[in-house]
Amino acid sequence: MWIISFTELLFAGWAGPDVGRSRYRGHVALALYRKYRPRSFAEVIGQDHVTEPLMQALRSGRLNHAYLFSGPRGCGKTSSARILARSLNCDKGPTPDPCGECESCRSLAPDGPGSIDVIEIDAASHGGVDDARELRERAFFAPAISRYKIYIIDEAHMVSSAGFNALLKLVEEPPDYVKFVFATTEPEKVLGTIKSRTHHYPFRLIPPGVLRPYLEQLASAEGVTVEPAVFPLVVRAGGGSARDTLSVLDQLIAGSGPEGVIYARAVALLGVTDVTLIDDMVDALAAGDGAAAFRTIDTVAEAGHDARRFSGDLLQRLRDLIILQKLPEAVEKGLLDAPDDELARMRTQAGQIGEATLSRWADIVHNGLVEMRGATSPRLLLELLAARMLLPSADDTVAAMLQRIESLERSGPPAALASPVASDSAGPADPVEEERPPSFASLRPGSLRPASAPPANVRPASAPPAIQPTSAPPASVRPASAPPAVDRSSSPPAIDGVDAAGVRRAWDEIVRLVGNGSKKAAAFAREAMVREIDGQTLVLVFKHKIHADGVSNDPAPLTEAVHQVFGGVWSVRCEVGGGDQRPTPSAPTRAAVSPLPSAAPRPPAAKAAPAKKPAAKAPARAPSTAKSADDWPETAKLGGPSTARSGPTTDPMPQDSDIPYDPEFDGPVREGFDPGDEPDPATDSLAVRQTSEEQALESLRQSFDLEKIAEHGR
Prior knowledge:
With 714 residues, this protein is an alpha/beta fold. Helix content is 41%, strand content 7%. It is built from 27 helices and 9 strands. It has helices at 2-14, 17-22, 32-35, 48-60, 77-89, 103-107, 129-139, 161-172, 192-195, 208-222, 230-238, 242-254, 263-270, 275-287, 290-302, 307-326, 340-352, 355-371, 378-390, 398-411, 500-505, 507-517, 519-526, 545-553, 556-566, 681-689, 692-704; strands at residues 66-70, 118-122, 149-154, 178-184, 199-202, 419-420, 529-534, 537-542, 571-576. The strands form 2 sheets. Strands 2-3-4-1-5 form a 5-stranded parallel beta sheet, covered by helices on one side. A 4-stranded mixed beta sheet has the order 6-9-8-7. α22 (507-517) packs across α25. It is elongated and about 120 Å long. 31% of the residues are buried.
């Protein structure tokens, strides 16, 4: 018994490490990046610019004595060096396609024991001058069983300068049977004299368009079900490195259950941001919904996500939207990799947000990522970033100005379309003809003085009857009614648990339900963006008026679809515009000026005569009588007291300002707004020709027949 056991033990030791290792193969799974290591240049993915020249060199026999493979980690440098050694020492070689049957090919296979004539050296631990001297002494011995003795020096940048100098003569003129392959991630640290004696092949990161099909192939070979939405997460986590990507996939497969690798578990394990949170954030920013944006940030924090990681993922989404705007076929060209439903949402978002807005948001998030380095409260910085993106008017930069201009350009006319669905679908009623207020020419300079201080010392000989103020305008004047104010207090209560962010998340499902009944209505609804919920009214914003009209004229399919998803009774209010503009109630296309509360309407007068020829001469006034402050003509004030004053009906008296008061203004009257700010060609030209002093003198001359005398005391 003891003799047999000892014999078995000796046999296991003589047989090599594979005999003892085979006992554990059923218990320990081999890592994917080792199990699926390429065996030939044809199996290397994403490095065609390297493998094709090497294969051609093997076919033609033009082989160099030293090669330098450089590139990021995990992109195939060491594997390609082993494949090159296998191709050189194959019994049918040198050949680009090793046979895999000879002793050398079996030894150098990924699962083989290795060859005595292929020596791999880790320069991180063997980079000194003594190691270089030992290598130089052993290199002159001929290979034992193979055609070439090949030295693969990994992490070659770790070799010291003295070590490189010790190898310099050997690398420059090695024996015919010696080949060198240097692999490094930092080729700039390799001694220039060594680099000049090698053929340099730079490896690159593998693009996502190549990694995605490769991962699907491996998952199928492993017999594991992986949800399609998981592959982009794995590719992004791998960062273009094949080894890192396979390690991530291996970890997900190891932790998967009978249902396979699902998206929720992958998100939790990899620590990436759920795409739903990114969609909610972008939709909230596009709609100017600050409440939804800050709720999303709170959800990110409550779920334990890193604010920096969320900001990076948000920046990645903004980058994807910019690319989709400029290159709609980005998916076909391999610039984007995402599931079909996510691509549909991104295309919708790209159509709703302008280029200047996306560019400014990307700059803000990028700068915020820099500011988050070492920050004690990343969530606070993330909230400040959201506030900056939502408030372009608070920023005086050129990017903010471009965003505001873009918002105005996309919104069209200032008066937004706000047509409730309950309104009649017929065209708008004919506008009511409104009588304009009396022209400025009919107002005499002296007719606008307070009624409480009538003049006592000036009585014209023939004065027209004064126009008494009235408390209400006559029946002939019909001022237009002001736009109806939106009374939010009377709106129906909102449905519990339904907010604008929730409707935005379910909008694709709503559009699908609308399409079941009407493809045309679904096409219109697809162009909508949910801005807010006003009670049980959905406020939708459209980029083009034709889409808003399409939904307003036939809202039944949309409201029915919303009812199927959320329940309740809904109505729709459509608006044209975008950006950060807030909704405004519908208003008539033209608003009349409200009548003065204490002044009666004045009949229009004839066209004023030139200033040089007054219409009438005022009678003589009391000589050398001092004028009181009440004798000066009063400027017409909106809503202030005014009475009639006798005087000639001549040129109007201009205001003592740059732009005179214009009673012809027919825009909406607002508190604190001076209608004189509106341009008027006639009065503007008068204001340009005359200064304020000249205007005052001309008024005195026309009204009181006064002339300017010599100035004293100056």
